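Issue: copy button drops trailing tokens. Both records pasted manually instead:
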Amino acid sequence: MTSVPHSPASGVPKRDIDPSTGRSVPSKRVNQPYLVQQRWLAKQERKKEVQKARAEGRTLPPSDLDEEEPSPLARFISTAILAALGAIAIALLGGMFFQNDPLWGYRGKWSNWRTYLPTQQQVFTPERLIQFNGDDTSRPILLSIKGDVFDVSAGRIHYGKGSPYHNLVGRDASRAFITGCFTTHLTHDLRGMSEKELAALDAWHAYYTNHHTYHKVGTMRLPPIDPASPIPESCHNSPGQKP
């Protein structure tokens, strides 16, 4: 809004220009709603004049009522955003219509709301992680695989006390994920594992990373493996069900 300058020492109150008349009026609080409305109306009228002039091939002189035209890049970005939002809306509505599910049956990392929230990643020691082994139902259930710690509380039926995979939580039992030995291979010692077996461990790690309800909460400070210690003996007790 255009203001009429004045000298503070003069004691003359600050004044504004009324766009509808071009006259100066006192810049009082009570006048502001009226002046804002009049300036908005003046801008709308200016837009009509500019559009008419363009249609006639004329160019109007600049005015303080002119709004800055967005750059081609800004217009492209805004159009792309609107198109993307429209495509997402159509996809969600299509899922509801055809499958009664806006996500079309997808359940993975990107459908987990925790994925989009910043979380404070923690560093766990073996002594601390064992406190989250599911024995205390008031605490989350955590497991570590390849040194990454995941919250698997949503799968308490699988990992809670007395469940089939209870031995895997509260520790890094990466070797057991490969061998299926849930009693003697509860260690992160991967010595002697073949490339195929290590690839299987990578698949397990991806399973937790991309899970719909499990989520990463930190990393584990794993103790070093004594190279002089014996490699855990082979075990063939391997259940086929995924935790």
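Record 2 (pasted manually too):
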Amino acid sequence: MRNELATWTAQLAAAREALSIRGLSHAASFACELYASLPLSVRENASSVQVDHSAAPSDGLLLLAKSYMDLQEYARASHVLGQKQGALTDVEFFVLHYARYLAGERRKEQLSMEMKTHSGWIILTFAASFLFTYHIPSHVGASQKQTTSNPHLKDLLRDLADADASPNQLDAFGLYLYAVVLKQAGFEHTTVHALYVQLLQRSLALF
């Protein structure tokens, strides 16, 4: 039992580091809470976790992108890593595309708010037009049928699919992000759903 507890402690510490460096703040916070809930004697006696320094190259770009992620400046985080010369590490690849996904989600929310504001003006215009001329403008209701989506989904799907086609290009986090983006794109085809399930299974198998 003691050996199992030591193993769990080391795994939690490793998860805390892996989640934090990738900007997965909520998951990292949960891992930290679980770690802090362990008995003090277990934490004190736990062997120190060897941090993989290759995850954060010496050029400092990953840490800069991570700092932007902490500030919720997702577009800047994505831009920093997108301008890097040379190959990206697995962590850099994930942070680049996760930041781009979050930047797109923020833009989607902004567009949704703009559409709601625009719809409000259309309703007022319709009310005034109806009261004074009994005429319903042809454009009323058209904008209400519009929906917003993440503007980066297409590029994300292309990049993640290309990476998945290369052997061992996507790690567990990358596969999970690919599944999330695929589902967010709203595809309902049976083959796409099967790919979504397969990606989740492959991701869990690597964790």
